[in-house]
Amino acid sequence: MTTPIALAIAGSDSGGGAGIQADLKTFAALGVFGASVVTALTAQNTHGVTAIHDVPHAFVTAQLDAVFADLKVNAVKVGMLSQSTIIEAVAEGLARHGATNLVVDPVMIATSGDRLLAADAIDVLRRVLIPRALIITPNLPEAAVLLDTSIAESETDMRDQAERLLKFGARAVLIKGGHGAGPESIDIFLDGTAELRLPAPRIATRHTHGTGCTLSSAIAAGLAKGLPLADAVVEAKAYVTLAIAAASRLEVGTGRGPVHHFHAWW
Q: Which among 27, 163, 214, 261 counts the fewest CB atoms within 10 Å?
């Protein structure tokens, strides 16, 4: 039996709740072997980010080349890429190695509100990386930044923005409604032919650190195991909803705590 392998390309969260740490926990929880390429080191905890140290783009390339030289990677999740040179290095490396099943989470702002993407890198993200993606997973503020427009306030707005984002070249878009209002958190999935409305009860908790990282990693895990994209999205949404619901069972930090990646076990 072939071991499913997913690669996370993202920043490290010293607090353990988001970034590479959340990605690897998600892969493990869903039965996938996780490899990693670290793009930045962040000094952060449940209260916020206090410092960011970008990994030199040449070393990002070295990590990526080392993984693909040895491991049969079935899916790739890309998260925090804070600088233009790093975005370009990742895009070039993925193209060089013929990477498939690319899930791009356009991480721009941490749950705490700290900016994680340089303003001048947004256009590079649009032009260089998003066109290579099988799916992109922006939240409401990220979708608005990518489109240089206001934040969607209704499902109609979300569908409209998803259609506009598809024109950037990704094969599918999942706009996440976690930043919205109302009793349900509704995500909208579009791939140019099919549309999915993915509702879940809005859970009253402040412990949502790493939610976006976890969802995109769960999608990559499903793809690594051979699921069709729409099925991987549905299963990922269910997994992260349960992880949020169980977050209060953890006692980690005194701020916005992490979701519970291993809710099924402990």
A: 163
